[in-house]
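Key result, reporting period 2: structure in, sequence out.
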C-alpha cells in the first residue's frame, strides 16, 4: 500500500495516509481510460446539427430545361447538390452520439487514472477543507499553500462555502466523490482529495 503525505490548509505536512491498493494501486489500463474519455465526450454532444438534403430544400419542382438539344448537361432539378442553393449530399441530421461502457470497465478506468495520479506524484491529500465564508481569495490562498495551480478538488460531502468559493477560480474545479469521472481527473494537473474523500472513494470502489 502506498503512503501519501497529508497536508493542512496552511500547506504543512501533518501526517501520512495509507492508500488502498485496490483503488490507488490498480493496474493502469490505457485502453479503458481512452474509451471512458471518448464515451464522456460523446455523451456530452448535443447532436443537433442539421442540413437539408435535395428533398428538403424549396423549389426545383421541374426540369430546368429539356433533356436533349440545348447543349447543356442534362439536369432534373435546380435543387440538386451541384447547384447553388441545392441540397447537401449526405447532410448531417440530428442523432444521438452516446454509447455505453460496462460498469466494470468504468470502474477500472477510474481506478487507472487514480493510480496514475499516485504514481506520478500528482495526488495531494488535505486533512480537511473548511471555509467560514464564501471567499475565493481564501480558497486560492489554500491552493497556493499546497502548490496547486491547475487542479481538481474532490470533497466527500457538499460544502457550499468551498464550492462557491472555488467557482470563480480559473484553473481549479471542485466535485463530489459521487461525481468524479475519468475525464476531469485526467484534465487536472493535480488531484486534491480530502481525507474524508479518500475514505469514501475506497468504500465505493474498493
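The corresponding designed sequence is given below.
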Amino acid at each position: 500500500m502506498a503512503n501519501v503525505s497529508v497536508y493542512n490548509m496552511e500547506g504543512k505536512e501533518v501526517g501520512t495516509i495509507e492508500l488502498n491498493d485496490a483503488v490507488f494501486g490498480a493496474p493502469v489500463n490505457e485502453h479503458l481510460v481512452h474509451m471512458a474519455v471518448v464515451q464522456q465526450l460523446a455523451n456530452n454532444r448535443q447532436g443537433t446539427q442539421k442540413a437539408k438534403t435535395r428533398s428538403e430544400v424549396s423549389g426545383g419542382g421541374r426540369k430546368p430545361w429539356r433533356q436533349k438539344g440545348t447543349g447543356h448537361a442534362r439536369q432534373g432539378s435546380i435543387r440538386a447538390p451541384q447547384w447553388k442553393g441545392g441540397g447537401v449530399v449526405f447532410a448531417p441530421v440530428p442523432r444521438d452520439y452516446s454509447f455505453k461502457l460496462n460498469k466494470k470497465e468504468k470502474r477500472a478506468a477510474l481506478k487507472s487514472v487514480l493510480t496514475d495520479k499516485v504514481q506520478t506524484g500528482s495526488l495531494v491529500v488535505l486533512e480537511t477543507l473548511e471555509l467560514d465564508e464564501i471567499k475565493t481569495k481564501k480558497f486560492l490562498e489554500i491552493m497556493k499553500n499546497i502548490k496547486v495551480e491547475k487542479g481538481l478538488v474532490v470533497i466527500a460531502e457538499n460544502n457550499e462555502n468551498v464550492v462557491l468559493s472555488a467557482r470563480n477560480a480559473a484553473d481549479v474545479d471542485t466535485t463530489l466523490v459521487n461525481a468524479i469521472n475519468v475525464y476531469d481527473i485526467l484534465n487536472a494537473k493535480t488531484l486534491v482529495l480530502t481525507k474524508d474523500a479518500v475514505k469514501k472513494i475506497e468504500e465505493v470502489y474498493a
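The domain at 3-45+99-205 is CATH 3.40.1370.10 (Ribosomal Protein L4; Chain: A;). The beta strands are 3-7, 13-18, 123-126, 151-155, 172-176, 190-194. This case is discussed further under Risks and Mitigation.
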